[in-house]
Each structure stands twice: as structure tokens, then as C-alpha cells.
TrEMBL record:
Keyword match Disulfide bond: no
Keyword tags: DNA-binding, Transcription, Transcription regulation
Domain HTH lacI-type: 4-60
Keyword set includes 4Fe-4S: no
Organism of this sequence: Cellulomonas humilata
GO molecular function, one term: DNA-binding transcription factor activity
PROSITE patterns reported for this sequence: HTH_LACI_2
Name by which UniProt lists this protein: LacI family DNA-binding transcriptional regulator
């Protein structure tokens, strides 16, 4: 079925295509009788025609789109929840979110030039050339970072602090030999390396043994093999700081497979507080992240940029904290 155009509406209502354009795009500074305007609107309704969003963008030079650039990360519960909250927050201002998963060789410039967003939000810092080009094109740019030192002045959720919180919690419960269960997916390295750095720094600060570090696949056999290596030797591991809850759940499975008890033999702490963490046996201790507050801040930062606000929105105070459960 051919796509309806303004020419179809013009024929249906008996007016020119220019008049149809004026009416359907709400131009009030053109002298068109109200009866004619209504006839055009009625014809468009009968045909089911709406003006092209792309055409509106070309005419006005801007759209209602916010382009959210997601680096080459895996999509799990945390990112999914963040995008859901972000989309809801911006929808209240009449803005739509277009998520771009930054994979492959296609330059970012090709995308933003094609869709002409009002703002571009990055979940990681932009390359300087990309950010400069977008600003020169009149697009508002809002970025974020994974740690305070990555991009000074940019909103960040310090990943190193997550690792430090994990070790602090384990040390408070008397553990001196800690392992770090890393993810096996290289796309998560940006997060995992920073969380591991926090684990290392906190072990050094507290005078603990340097953490044992191994990647754990999300299956029982892999986790069990890693657990065996951690428990071997004169100083067996008694606590595990896992990259996230999914890796922590794999570690719990590996411990059960090896006949070890949690937390009596080995304590485990994850990150994210996904629903399955509460259902685990034992229930998983984890680092909760304020995903809704992060999304609210990012949405407010986008709106402040669009409104040319002088002061940025207040950053959330409680970004994350430990939720203690039975696994520690």
C-alpha cells in the first residue's frame, strides 16, 4: 500500500498542498479561514494521514529526539532499568529516546546527522572530536563517566567505590583472604577493571592479602573449577567479591558443587540487587545501585541543557550502598 502524502490530503479537501502543509503544521501566521483549516484536518483524519516527523525536523532544524549512545556493553537488568526510567522521565517533557548501541565501524556522526536530535546523551564520555562537532551543529551534549577521574566535571557513578564497598563489608565480617570473581565477557571490562581496582585498593588499605582474581563463566562447571583453585594452598579464600549478582550466583553454584557452605566456608557479595539475588539460597548480599536516581539525574541534565539552565541539577547523594543478606 503506497504511503499517504500531503498531496492526497490536498485532493481530498480540495485545497493546495501548501495550504495542507500550513494547516497540519500549525502555522497560525497565515490567513486561512477556520472552515478551511477544519476541512483539511477532517480530510487528514479520514485518510489517516499525519505529517512526517522527518519532514518536520528538516523544516524546523530540530526534533523531539534525544539520542542515547550506549557503548558496546552487554544489556542486562541494570542498563535495561536505566533506559526504562530515562525514557519515562524524558517522555514527560515530550521527548522521545532513541538508543544507539555503539557497535561496528559506523561513525557516530553519520547517525546524529541523519536523525538531527535535540540532544545527545552518552553513557560514557564522547571522543573530543565527536563532542565538538555535535556542539557546533547546535546539539546539546550530555555525557557521563564510570569514575570521577575519567572526565572531570562529568556525572559519574564511581565504579572503584563499588569494589571498595565490597571489601569493606567482607573485612568487617573478619575475612582476610578475598577473591575477585570477574566476568568472562570482555565487553564488561570498562566496569570490571574499575571495580577490581577498588577491591585491590581497599585490600591494600586494610592490610589484607592481595585479592585472587579469576574470570567466572555463568555455569556451574566453570565456577566450581575456580572455587577449587581459590580454596587450594596454605591461605584458602574465605570471601568473594563478584563483579555483579549474576557472577555471584554462579559462584554460589560452584560452592555448592564443591560441598562448601555459604557463608560459613566462603562468603559472597555481588553488585546490582537484581530480583534473583533475593531468591538465591542463601539470599545474596549485594551492592544496590540507585538506578532510578541516576536516570532522573541524567534526564534532568538533558532538560537543563535544552532549557539553557545556568546551574546543573543536583546529583543524587546515595548512589549505592550494601544490602546485607545471608551470603555474608
Amino acid at each position: 500500500m503506497p504511503r499517504l502524502t500531503s498531496a492526497d490530503v490536498a485532493r481530498e479537501s480540495g485545497v493546495s498542498r501548501t495550504t495542507v502543509s500550513y494547516v497540519l503544521n500549525g502555522k497560525s501566521d497565515v490567513a486561512i479561514p477556520e472552515a478551511t483549516r477544519q476541512r483539511v484536518r477532517d480530510a487528514a483524519a479520514r485518510l489517516g494521514y499525519t505529517p512526517s516527523a522527518a519532514a518536520r525536523t528538516l523544516r524546523s532544524g530540530r526534533s523531539d529526539l534525544v539520542l542515547c549512545v550506549l557503548p558496546d556493553w552487554t544489556i542486562g537488568p541494570v542498563i535495561d532499568t536505566l533506559l526504562d526510567h530515562l525514557t519515562t522521565e524524558l517522555a514527560e517533557r515530550g521527548l522521545s529516546v532513541l538508543v544507539h548501541h555503539d557497535r561496528g565501524p559506523r561513525p557516530l556522526a553519520e547517525l546524529w546527522r541523519a536523525v538531527t536530535p535535540r540532544a545527545v546523551l552518552g553513557l560514557a564520555p564522547f571522543a573530543e572530536d565527536d563532542e565538538r562537532a555535535m556542539r557546533q551543529a547546535g546539539i546539546q551534549v550530555v555525557g557521563s563517566a564510570l569514575d570521577e577521574d575519567d572526565h572531570p566535571g562529568t556525572f559519574s557513578v564511581p565504579q572503584t567505590r563499588i569494589g571498595r564497598l565490597q571489601v569493606e563489608h567482607l573485612a568487617e565480617r573478619g575475612h582476610r583472604v578475598v577473591a575477585y570473581a570477574a566476568p568472562s565477557d570482555d565487553r564488561l571490562a570498562a566496569f570490571a577493571d574499575r571495580r577490581l581496582a577498588g577491591v585491590v585498593l581497599e585490600c591494600e588499605r586494610l592490610g589484607l592479602t592481595a585479592p585472587r582474581v579469576d574470570a567466572v563463566d555463568l555455569d556451574v562447571a566453570s565456577a566450581a573449577a575456580v572455587v577449587r583453585s581459590w580454596r587450594a594452598g596454605p591461605e584458602p579464600v574465605t570471601a568473594v567479591a563478584a563483579y555483579n549478582d549474576e557472577v555471584a550466583l554462579a559462584v554460589l553454584s560452584g560452592l555448592r558443587a564443591e560441598g562448601l557452605r555459604t557463608p560459613q566456608d566462603v562468603a559472597v557479595i555481588g553488585v546490582d540487587d537484581i530480583p534473583a539475588a533475593r531468591l538465591a539460597a542463601p539470599a545474596l548480599t549485594t551492592v544496590w545501585q540507585a538506578i532510578d536516581a541516576q536516570a532522573t539525574y541524567l534526564a534532568a541534565a538533558v532538560i537543563a541543557a535544552l532549557d539553557d539552565a545556568v546551574d546543573p541539577p543536583a546529583q543524587p547523594a546515595d548512589v549505592f550502598h550494601v544490602i546485607a543478606r545471608d551470603s555474608t
